[in-house]
Amino acid sequence: MTAVAVPGAGGAPDPAADAAAESRAPAVTAKDVRRELRRQLFRSKTFLGGMIIILFWAFCAAFPAVIATDDPSRQDPASKWVRPFTDGFLFGADRSGRDVFSRMVYGAREIMIIAPAAVVLGTLIGITLGLLMGYFGGPLDDVISRIIEALMSLPVILVALLALSALDASRLTIILLIGFLFGPIIGRTVRAAVLTERNLDYVRAAELRGERSTYIMFVEILPNVVGPIIVEFTVRLGYAVFTMAGLAFIGFGTQPGSPDWGRTIFEERSSLLSDVWWPSLVPALALASLVVAINMVADAIQGLVDR
Amino acid sequence: MSTPALEFKELHLAYVVRGVPREVLRGVSFSVQPGESYGLVGESGCGKSTAAYAAVRYLPRNAKILSGSVELGGRDVMSLGTEELRLLRANNASIVYQDPGQALNPTIKVGPQLAEAFTVTGMSASDAAVQARAMLQKVQIADPDSVLGRYPHQLSGGMQQRVVIAMALACDPQLLILDEPTTGLDATVEAEVLDLVRKLRDEYGTSVLFISHNLGAVRSMCDRVGVLYAGQLVEEGSAQEVFDAPQHPYTVGLLRCLPRHGSKKTDQRLETIPGFLPLLGADLPTCVFVDRCPLADEICRTQVPPMVDLGGRIARCHHTDRVHDIAVADLPKGTASTVDRTRDPLLQLRGVSKTFHQGGKQIKAVRDVTLDLFPGETLGLVGESGSGKTTLAHTILGIHAPDQAGTLTFAGTPLASHTRKRSDDAIRGIQIVFQNPDSALNRRHSVRRIIGRSLRRLAKVEPAKIEDELHEITAAVRLTDRHLDMRPAQLSGGLKQRVAIARAFAGRPRIVVCDEPTSALDVSVQAAILNLLSDLQRDGDTSYVFISHDLRVVRYLSDRIAVLYLGRIMELGPAERVFDGPHHPYTEALLSAAPSVEGDTRVRIKLEGEIPSAMNVPTGCVFHTRCPRKLEGDICSTQEPPLNPTPDGGVIRCHIPFDQLGGGPVQVELTRRSGDV
């Protein structure tokens, strides 16, 4: 019987052989993972469809003059209520003879500025609140949670009405208002995500390293809850568009005669009685397309985050 | 020969990932005879669970049978229609899963849930209720009526697993598949569950397919075993033969990775299996094990090894005649014991207790613990779950503040109760390696960032020097530089644990608490990690507080061992004495519960009932309610025994005098056995 020389298994004088036992990791880097995620996102028809519509409205908001065929506020009594697809009026004209198509294009601007700005603000508030509640827990969590519940029991529109009646109804006020109203709601989603992270050992390891709470919250935990935050951001964006249009519809935040969609629907709705549907239906469809598009994108992202 | 209960015939099974089939089972053939227990062993990723689920065709949608068949009681499972398949699963085969907490519906009481298993076979509701109660008695639940009315979460893990087994047996199956049924359970509970399965198998004549990575459990449970590697059965034979005289190099390697009975870090390093499991669906060389095999030669690389029949057992190897020659010698000596107990202790605990308050009740998780930890020493903490091991470790780390009365002293200075209040030196000096590296490493941070942060925070390394230090520490834990830019998800379990160890060691700690650091890892990886831990200890004179439920691992690494029960130290002493005796009756029971790969000759000491709640601690000796050696009279139930010093400098909390405590007979038995062989 001859003993067989054994590399590693039998006698491994070189301790590095131990590690060799595990070190052929598949050559995948973080960059590959991100690229793969992006690839999957761009293969999703829901995401692409939604994104195309959103980008269209964003373009309208940024460069309305490129697309619009007319000045949105130019009045011409002669062309009052011209039907769609006639005389260069693609979507017809309204009661003052203004071009409905051009007003639709210009109308995107207000909503495309206010809604994202408000939701960015709301998300920042939500992240801070959610991290504080989820990480510290205890009495702080209890107090903030109760306050949020109280806030959420009030209808958004009602709070907005009260606030806007008291303050001047500028663009900034509306952004702040929607931001502060949505912040706590986003905060609850963030809190739920933080709660599961908080119990993981990496947080404990950071505490045992003597890290400060702000470091643990923003550097350790936050990157791990980005997924739910992105989903929540897109979902809230849809709601913000809605809320903003609702406020405009009841006359807040926009000047009379502004091409804003909510405002236009409000001002032109009476024409419906005279069988003139286009001045109000066109901005309504524009609004609906934007909300649906945002939700399509939200769905597609959610599908990826959940896996 | 009668029809086998289960027969795999050259089954090739693949998972289709993005249109590409990746083969998981590569021609697996084995059969389980009626009334037989068949064990499948192998490391994770070898296809054990896939084989188990293939037996009842319970496979994910992307699974694809390439060729071969599975027959259950003579019927081809893969060709059955949906309804036939449902009936087959309802009447002929049952599966018991790893986690009983997840296998039971938390919203339905045990009674109705168990009865459902009977109604599904066509029984009336009233008969089913009667049968459910009878079945609970069969699985040895003492008080079936009260259990029937409870929700699953109101039962302990062991009780839940009994209920799951009762459900599985409801249809009186021909085949019972157990997929890691005891992995989440304590050794004492595991032993009871295994006893139960064995008894029921004999009573019902059920065939058992037992899947486990716990080789000891498989040996104690099974008549025959099959060793799977990379989706191929590489060896099969009677459990005793395979474990005592393995005929395939992989089996040999697997068995040698385990710390053998009584082996110590001071005697020898543990063996590991170099190299890697082939990736899922990779093109395989002629012999699946060739890249890691110590015997591999030209023929192994060019010819597919045959299934060699060795008289009642088979091995898939060209060199079964040379397997015995795989060198055992030449293992580098382990670390020499350097613990010097004349030095000042590094950590002193004096009367440390920890009481949690919950709903007005007190939970005394740790009670009056006094111990010393010396530089370079490993203190093993053992005990069932609920014994306070982790709470004690967390108290040392400052995660929980101890009760007022006790004191902790680290390197001569008092230790603040909470991490936040501790000095930088104390924080740097006491670090932890967690059980589960997936949870312990931030999955959004790169390895460089994870370790770098610790270097910065703990070792106060200047930013300019971080890179140098990083290379040094990654080399010390045998990681390479290219791992630095990876995220944890891209590393295997063993590599992740190395990163976690590097992080703990970044600040050159004096004490590292290891909380079950290898229990989530495969045995070959476990061996490598244990070797690493003992190397680091030798190099840095580091002390370990080592928690594990695997007693062999504790024995391998520990210099002294503390046995905890209900938060109290029942016994503390040198590892050899605590294991070999004389030892506390509780230690004796714990040791006898752990099944061993070498086969057991010891008589199992059964512990009655479960560990009592820390909210309602028994009077007198806390262990008297389960103690097999409870003394005549009522001294045990009325007087708490003092911590009696033992001649070797340890302590034992028992009324029985030291020289009459158990332990001796075990050694006698073992000597006799090795004499026979």
UniProtKB/TrEMBL annotation, chain A:
- Renumbered residue ranges of the record's region Disordered: 1-23
Q: What residues does the ABC transmembrane type-1 domain cover? A: 108-298
Name the Gene3D superfamilies on file.
MetI-like
Bilayer-spanning residue ranges = 47-67, 111-135, 147-167, 173-194, 237-255, 276-298
Location in or out of the cell: Cell membrane
This chain belongs to the protein called Unannotated protein
Q: Which is one Gene Ontology cellular component term of this protein?
A: plasma membrane
The record's Gene Ontology biological-process terms are:
transmembrane transport
> Which keywords belong to this entry?
Cell membrane, Membrane, Transmembrane, Transmembrane helix, Transport
User: Membrane topology type, per the record?
Assistant: Multi-pass membrane protein
Q: Which Pfam families match?
A: BPD_transp_1
Species name for this entry?
Answer: freshwater metagenome
Q: Give me the stretches of Low complexity compositional bias.
A: 1-20
InterPro entries attached here? Answer: BP-dependent_transpt_permease, MetI-like, MetI-like_sf
UniProtKB/TrEMBL annotation, chain B:
Q: Which InterPro entries match?
A: AAA+_ATPase (IPR003593), ABC_Ni/Peptide_Import (IPR050388), ABC_transporter-like_ATP-bd (IPR003439), ABC_transporter-like_CS (IPR017871), Oligopep_ABC_C (IPR013563), P-loop_NTPase (IPR027417)
Per the UniProt record, the source organism is freshwater metagenome
UniProt-recorded name of the protein: Unannotated protein
What keywords tag this UniProt record? ATP-binding, Cell membrane, Membrane, Nucleotide-binding, Transport
Q: How does it sit in the membrane?
A: Peripheral membrane protein
Quote the subcellular location field of this record.
Cell membrane
The question of whether ATP-binding is a record keyword is answered with yes
Spell out the molecular function terms from Gene Ontology.
ATP binding; ATP hydrolysis activity
Output the PANTHER family linked to this UniProt entry. DIPEPTIDE TRANSPORT ATP-BINDING PROTEIN DPPD, OLIGOPEPTIDE TRANSPORT ATP-BINDING PROTEIN APPD
Keyword Nucleotide-binding present in the record's keywords: the answer is yes
One biological process term from GO is: peptide transport
PROSITE patterns xrefs = ABC_TRANSPORTER_1 (PS00211), ABC_TRANSPORTER_2 (PS50893)
Q: ABC transporter domain spans which residues? A: 6-255, 347-591
Per the record, its GO cellular-component terms are:
plasma membrane
